Every structure is written in C-alpha cells, then in structure tokens.
User: Fold this.
Amino acid sequence: MESISGDEFEISDEQDSTAQEEKIFVTVRVRPLNGKEIAKGDASDWECVNNTTIIFKNNPSERSTYPNAYTFDRVYGCDSSTKEVYEEGVKGIALSVLNGINSSIFAYGQTSSGKTYTMSGITEYAIADIYDYISRQNDREFALKFSAIEIYNECVRDLLSHDGAQLRLLDDPEKGVVVEKLTEANLRDCNHLKELISACEAERQTGETTLNEMSSRSHQILRLVPILI
Ligand SMILES: Nc1ncnc2c1ncn2[C@@H]1O[C@H](COP(=O)(O)OP(=O)(O)OP(=O)(O)O)[C@@H](O)[C@H]1O
Assistant:
C-alpha cells in the first residue's frame, strides 16, 4: 500500500516516529493439518509454546545441537483465526497508510503453507477497516486507487487488464521501480474494490502441486493508493 499524496497532509509525532523506525513485524502462522495429512497419520512438526516462540518437535538426535526454538514478534498456532492474526499483526499497518506511511503486508512460505488462505482473509478485513476509517473522517476526504499485478515465470502481468501482455519494470529516479502501463482503477466504493479483487483472482495462474491442488503458482501484488482530495 502506498501512502497518501496531497499537499495539506500532516502526520502526528507518534506516526512520524513509527515511520522513522521503519518497523518490520514478523509473525508465523501454523496451519492445521488437512484431510490428506490426517488420513496419512501425519503429525505437526511445529508447536507454539507461547505467543512468540515456536519449536520444532522432531529434531533428530544426531543433529540435536541445532536450535529447535525460534522467536518471532508473534506466532499463531493451528487453532488461530485469521481475524486474530489480522487484529494483532496487520490492522495497524494497513490503517497507517491513511496517515501517510507506506506499508507492505506480505506472506512468505512453501507451497500449501496457507499464504493465500491467510492473505485473502486479511485483505477482506483490511478493506473493511480502511473504508470504515474513511467514512468516519469529517475533515478529510479520500480517493483510492487500486492496481494489481501477477509475477509468474519472471513475467509481470496486469491483473486488471485482459490482454495478458507482459509489462516492463522501469527504474524511476524519484519513484523507484515503476510498472510501465499498469492499469490504475479509481475506486467508487468498497464493493467496487471487492469486485476488482475477485476479477484479479480469476485472472491468476493456478495449477496443482504435490502439496496443493489449487496452488497459486505465482506472486500477486495488490496495491492501494489513498489520495487526499
Ligand atoms: N489456517 C488455516 N485453516 C484452515 N485451512 C487452511 C489454513 N491455511 C491454509 N488452509 C488450507 O490449506 C490449503 C493450502 O493453503 P493455501 O492455498 O493458502 O496455501 P499457499 O501457501 O497459498 O499455497 P501455494 O503457494 O501453493 O499457492 C488450502 O486448502 C487452504 O484452504
């Protein structure tokens, strides 16, 4: 997400210090075993022993000098809900974009680890909160722009365009990396954004992997840019 552009915009000291800290908040979420794994008698190798520590339970004895406990800003066990993950680790970051702070929220992990599942839920909650926040502003009015790309086999595609053309990445001295000719939609409202995200979902490359029948096979980047009007 990119922060607001607009002349009158000011940020508070608290927001300013958050921006200067360039904080990165890293969380881990363990997904529950799926039907296939349960049928095979698999057991989870990972256990969250408190809010910040996850342990690997099956260290072979000959490698016992390897660490088996890992600490993150927050860890979520397999009974956690996406709402919990969102509220504690993501909401503040998503809303900070409306106060002038560029922010990114991304998921990383092997196939079938639950990236799409978690990010879909998180996106839904973030959209609801962003529009709720905007509707409660009496002194500020926002316009939102939305764009979406997919990176697949080293190619960048515009998910809001049906022509399937490969887009070029350009290095702009002021803006940084820019995707040339990328469609930017001016959002009418929350439902418009949801419709566009569904359309992007339909455009994505999917395929089967040994671990995930509906693997996304690509990286998707959704970008929301609020503008003060
Ligand atoms: N926290 C969870 N609770 C219940 N089911 C989950 C959870 N996380 C993932 N799943 C299920 O596990 C399967 C794999 O998840 P998902 O497709 O999100 O993985 P992925 O990391 O995006 O995989 P890929 O990289 O292959 O696209 C899906 O069927 C999804 O519904």
About this structure: Helices lie at 13-21, 35-39, 82-89, 91-96, 115-135, 190-203. Residues 31-32, 34, 109, 111-117, 209, 212, 214-216 surround adenosine-5'-triphosphate (CB under 6 Å). The domain at 13-228 is CATH 3.40.850.10 (Kinesin). Residues 115-135 form the longest helix (21 residues).
